[in-house]
Amino acid sequence: MIITPDHLQLRDSVRSFVEKEINPHIEKWEADERFPAHELFKKMGALGFLGIHKPEEYGGLGLDYSFNVVFAEEMGACLNGAIPMAVGVQTDMCTPALAKFGSKELCNEFLRPAISGEMVGCIGVSETDAGSDVAGLKTSAKSDGGDYVINGSKMWITNGAQADFMCLLANTSDGPAHKNKSLIIVPMKTKGISVSTPFEKIGMRASDTVQVFFDNVRIPKRNLIGKENEGFTMQMLQFVEERLYAAGSAIKKMELCIQKTIDYTRQRTAFGQSILDNQTVHFRLAELQTEIESLRALTYRSTALYVDGKQEEATTLASMAKLKAGRLLREVSDGCLQYWGGMGFMWENEVARSYRDGRVLSIGAGADEVMLGIIAKAMGTLPQKNKQVR
C-alpha cells in the first residue's frame, strides 16, 4: 500500500475534523455515556467520510479500501475509543455486504442514507451464547409468504440504542450451520423489536451498547442481502474490512499514548532526574514505537492484498493485524500507564482511558483465539475437527 498525495489530503481532512468536531466534546459524551450519533454522522457524511470506499452510485467516493485505512488511522486520534468504534460499525460492519451484494432498491433505501449520515446502522451477529462462534447463533428468520418472521436476540450491539437499521445475520433454514444463514436489513422501529437499557462497560463509555430482542418481527424478503442462506460467507467477507479498520484505528491511538507519556515523563522528576531520562523508560518507549510501526506495515500489506482482490491472503493477514493490534494496544497502554505513576491510575487520565477502551479490541470482531484459529488454518496446522473456523 503506497500513500499518495490524495491519501495525505484525506488524512489532513480527517485530522482537522477530529480536532474540531469530536475531541472538544469527548468529556461530555463520556459523562453522558452516549454521543449524538445522528448529529455527528450527518457532519461526517457531508464530508464523504462515511462512504469513502462505497459506490459513487449511492453517494460514496468510490475510492479503494486503502483510503479507508488512512481514515481509520486518523480516527484513532479521537480522545476515546468509543467514537472510532461506533463510526467503524457504520462504515465497515453493517454496510460492506449491503454495498457489495444488496439490490439497487435496498441500497437506495438504506446504504445511501447511511453514507450521507441520515441513518445510523448497527450489526446484529453476536448473541449471548454465540459471540466468536458465529456458526452457533440461534436467531431465526422463518419464511412466511413474502416475509421473514424473526425471533431471537442479539447481544452487545454498538449503536443499538440509536440505530435506524440493523444488518442482521439469522438462520433462514435448517441446513448446515455454515449454509443456513442470511443477512437481512431490519429497520429498528419495526413492530416486535425491543431494546434493553445501555450496558455499563469497563470502557468505550461514550458508545451505547445494548441487547436487541425480536418477537415475531415481520420483515419483507426484499430486505434480504444477496441470496438466501449465503449470509455466513458474506459476513466472513465483511469481517475482513471490520478487522482492517480495527487494526488501523489502533495505530494512532497507541502513538498518541506514547507521545503523551513522553511529554509527561520529560517534565516529571524523581531522584534528581526526569523519568524519561531513565534508560529503561526511553528504551521501552522506543521498543513499543517499533512494534507500532511493524503493525502499520502489516496492516498496509493486508490492505494492499485486499485491494488487489487476493481475498484468502487478505483474510489471513487481516486476522494477524487485528490480533497484533489488540495485544499491542494492551501492552502499550499498560506500559505507558506505569510511567505515569499515581496519575496513571486516575479515571480522567487519557492513557488510563486507552487502557480501558483498548481491552475490547481482543474480544470484539473475533476474539484473539479466533484470529489464531484462522491463522493456524492458513498455515495448515489446525486439527481436522476444527477446519470450519473462519
Structural write-up:
The protein is built from twelve helices and ten strands. It is of the alpha+beta class and 390 residues long. A four-stranded mixed sheet has the order 1-4-5-8. Strand 9 and strand 10 (273-274) form a beta hairpin. The longest helix is centred in the middle third of the chain and has 37 residues, at 231-267. It starts with a helix and ends in an 11-residue tail after the last helix. The relative contact order is 0.11.
Descriptors for this entry?
alpha+beta, 390 residues, 10 strands, four-stranded mixed sheet
User: Distance between the terminal alpha carbons, to the nearest Å?
Assistant: 25 Å
Low-confidence stretches: none
User: What's the count of strands?
Assistant: 10
Seen as an oligomer or otherwise, the chain set is: single chain
Shape: globular
Describe the SSE topology.
Elements: H1 5-22, H2 26-32, H3 37-46, H4 65-75, H5 82-92, H6 96-101, H7 104-116, E1 121-124, E2 140-144, E3 147-158, E4 165-171, E5 181-187, E6 193-195, E7 209-220, E8 224-225, H8 231-267, E9 269-270, E10 273-274, H9 279-307, H10 311-339, H11 350-358, H12 368-379
Parallel strand pairs: 1-4
Antiparallel strand pairs: 2-3, 3-7, 4-5, 5-8, 6-7, 9-10
Helix pairs in contact: 1-4, 4-8, 5-8, 8-9, 8-10, 8-11, 9-10, 10-11, 10-12
